[in-house]
Design a protein that fits this description.
The structure holds 2 protein chains of 2 kinds. By secondary structure, chain A is an all-alpha fold. Chain A contains 9 helices and no strands. Chain B contains 18 helices and 10 strands. In chain B, helix 8 crosses helix 9 and helix 14 packs parallel to helix 16. Chain B is elongated, with a radius of gyration of 32 Å. The C terminus of chain B is likely disordered.
């Protein structure tokens, strides 16, 4: 086994262990979220090693295709979650995040790595790395906001249905979920905006046009508008609760479309 | 020696009958005195709460149970036919297990409730004062109290939601992140509402607003929680500020309508609100609960949560059962060992009798001996008896304590030609206190 395979196995098994520990504490009385957090942090280290290893192999920032970008997005998601103080103590959120990240790493590793891709001269620009990194950080924030919003909607449903069982007790309070989702969008939205701006600067230097209504561009604009609407509802109208959290679910559907759907359904200028 | 519990509880008897057969604390010592004066009853404790009346007693044989059954009715003035079929009676280790389950709170109406342990302690204390306990019930109740304490500290059985108040706090905490600084609005007043309010403020809720049709009542309650009295017509405004609302008025018309709440919600900008409607008929229109971010629970919903928690507590009950089994085993060792006491006494009595008789014969044969010399002979014979008795005594104790002895106590009695039980206790006519004491001496 080469380094990459070993690191991938370590990463996945550590994330898997973190998810298992979270699920375990969901069931029982004992709270093991600290252990889960430690496992997740170890997983992050292995994951970072994997990304660096890939970078050494390529001799550049390892973000040349979907394989690399999914891996980086998953790493960023986990890193933000582990770093976020407020969400730390919830086994339910921890389990959801670990499972989503685990799935993303599995998905990314299944995509061919094609090391031999040299960049087309047209795409060489100092904006490229910044564009990709900021966009992916934006996605990471949106994924976490989505998970929290799903938790909020579930918690609200359970409270309305008057179903007070273990699941409902394990979920953080509505308040905490609402605030966590908001802070994730507050982090993701500026990143995503920056991604769009640097993207259009890159497009200008590569093709001489800031915006060309490429499908990816169109969908990222739609995504941006949905999250802008969320922030508008939250900040300007000061409204929380169901409508705001539903917007986050819709926003995440747009993220999936922008990030993955466009590449599967249409062919544009974006490689991924 | 026969340990028995005879009684009825909320599972076997309707409340009217339980009321008629309950023995008030003020009459308890009188009752214990009357019960222990029955010749067959050597020890007794009476546990009488609103959910149960139980007599724990030590009698000579199983046949004496009927006397206790009759006594209960006679003392409470209820004919035997009225309650006999509602009674349960357990003997020996079943009786001990029953008391341990009661003390653990497993036999209670609200499983795991803590009050019962205090009641068990009080029942035992009353019996101690009435001098109606002896070695068996002393040991039994000490073990029962330690079962109660262990179950409370080693299992989570007591940590569930027991009251409407604690359910309210749990629910509030799954809506709000911490109750600090939250505003509570109380509309109307009532015991349950106040209980819920106490729980919520204990959990950290901050400001309290009180609305009542009677101004003095509102002000009195507000003063108690250093809150603010609000006029009844200002409820719509107060709703805009309150995070938690408790209603319990006697009004037949709803106090909080859907329109009123919808307006309040737009003032709250979708911040969630938790409504607890304790009143019957309800104070809050049911459709209020359909509004976004409004969580409306009425008294039946809260009770349903209490019920559901009972299910969750099942696993804790299993833990409690394990504790009970352990303590039961410990108690039974001591309980069975108590059976050895009359056998040992009878054996010693028999040897002592032989010694005395032989010594008498010797004295007439010896003729002239000094007091000192005779004293020496006395001491030597006593020592012989003690030494002969020593090993059998230890074995009898061991065999009695063992659930599966190689030799039964009956066989031992046959071997030594003794028949304990009747002669030392009944025939000699010693006062009961002595008999009871003998258990502790050995």
């Amino acid at each position: 086994m080469d380094n990459a395979a070993i690191l991938l196995a370590a990463t996945m098994s550590l994330y898997c262990a973190a998810a298992a520990v979270c699920l375990w504490s969901l069931r029982g009385e004992t709270d093991r979220t600290r252990l889960a957090l430690a496992l997740a942090a170890a997983g992050l280290a292995a994951h970072a090693g994997m990304i660096i290893d890939r970078g050494i192999e390529l001799g550049r920032v390892p973000l040349i295709n979907l394989h690399d970008s999914v891996s980086f997005a998953a790493w960023a998601t986990m890193a933000i979650y582990v770093g976020a103080r407020r969400a730390r103590r919830s086994a339910a959120l921890g389990a959801a995040v670990s499972l989503v990240v685990l799935a993303a790493v599995a998905f990314g590793s299944a995509i061919p790595r094609d090391t031999n891709q040299a960049l087309v001269p047209a795409l060489r620009s100092r904006w490229s790395t910044i564009h990709v990194v900021t966009s992916l950080l934006g996605y990471a924030g949106f994924v976490l906001a989505f998970i929290s919003a799903v938790g909020h909607i579930a918690q609200e449903k359970l409270l309305k249905a008057k179903r007070i069982d273990l699941v409902q007790k394990r979920l953080p309070s509505l308040d905490a979920l609402d605030r966590f989702a908001y802070s994730m969008v507050a982090l993701g939205f500026p990143m995503f905006t920056l991604g769009i701006v640097t993207g259009s600067l890159w497009a200008q230097s590569a093709w001489g046009s800031y915006w060309s209504w490429d499908p990816k561009e169109t969908w990222s604009l739609i995504t941006w508008l949905v999250y802008a609407a969320y922030l508008h509802v939250r900040i300007l109208l000061g409204r929380r609760g169901k409508p705001a959290n539903r917007l986050l679910v819709a926003g995440f559907a747009c993220v999936l479309m922008t990030y993955l759907g466009v590449n599967l359904l249409a062919h544009g200028l974006h490689k991924y | 020696m026969h340990l028995v519990v005879i009684g009825l509880n909320h599972k076997t008897a309707p409340v009217e009958l339980r009321e008629r057969l309950s023995i008030d604390a003020s009459r308890l010592e009188e009752a214990l005195g009357a019960l222990v004066s029955i010749a067959a009853v050597s020890e007794c404790v009476i546990l009488s709460t609103c959910n149960r009346t139980e007599v724990y007693a030590c009698t000579r044989t199983r046949a004496d149970d009927a006397q206790i059954v009759d006594w209960i009715g006679a003392f409470c003035g209820v004919p035997v036919d009225a309650y006999e079929r509602h009674l349960y009676s357990w003997a020996g280790h079943k009786a001990a297990e029953h008391l341990f389950r009661v003390a653990a709170g497993i036999d209670s109406m609200v499983i795991g409730e803590a009050q019962i342990l205090g009641q068990v302690k009080a029942a035992y204390a009353a019996a101690k004062r009435a001098h109606s306990t002896g070695s068996v019930l002393n040991s039994l109740f000490h073990h029962a109290v330690s079962v109660g304490k262990r179950v409370r500290s080693e299992t989570a059985i007591g940590r569930g939601a027991f009251s409407v108040g604690s359910v309210a706090v749990q629910l509030a905490e799954s809506i709000f992140e911490g109750l600090q600084g939250r505003t509570i609005l109380v509309v109307g007043a009532g015991k349950t509402a106040e209980l819920a309010l106490t729980h919520l403020t204990c959990a950290g809720a901050g400001r309290v607003l009180v609305a009542n049709r009677t101004k003095q009542k509102a002000e009195a309650l507000a003063a108690e929680y250093s809150g603010l009295a609000v006029a009844f017509q200002d409820i719509p405004t107060a709703l805009g500020e309150a995070d938690i609302v408790i209603t319990s008025t006697g009004s037949t018309e709803p106090i909080i309508t859907r329109r009123m709440m919808a307006q309040a919600m737009s003032a709250r900008r979708g911040r969630p609100v938790f409504l607890i409607d304790i009143a019957v008929p309800r104070d809050v229109e049911a459709s209020v609960g359909e509004l976004d971010s409004v969580f409306l629970y009425n008294i039946d919903d809260l009770r349903a949560v209490l019920e559901r928690d009972t299910h969750i507590r099942r696993t804790e009950i299993e833990h409690a059962e394990a504790v009970i089994a352990q303590e039961l085993q410990r108690f039974m060792v001591r309980y069975r060992a108590l059976d050895a006491v009359p056998v040992i006494t009878a054996m010693r009595d028999k040897f002592e009798e032989i010694r005395r008789a032989e010594l008498e014969k010797l004295r007439s044969k010896l003729g002239d001996v000094s007091a000192e010399q005779f004293e020496a002979i006395e001491a030597a014979t006593r020592s012989i008896v003690n030494k002969i008795c020593h090993h059998p005594m230890i074995r009898i104790k061991d065999y009695a304590a063992s659930p599966d002895p190689p030799v039964s106590l009956e066989q031992i009695c046959e071997l030594f030609g003794i028949c304990p039980g009747e002669p030392p206790r009944g025939e000699t006519g010693r006062p009961k206190a002595d008999t009871k004491g003998s258990g502790e001496e050995n």
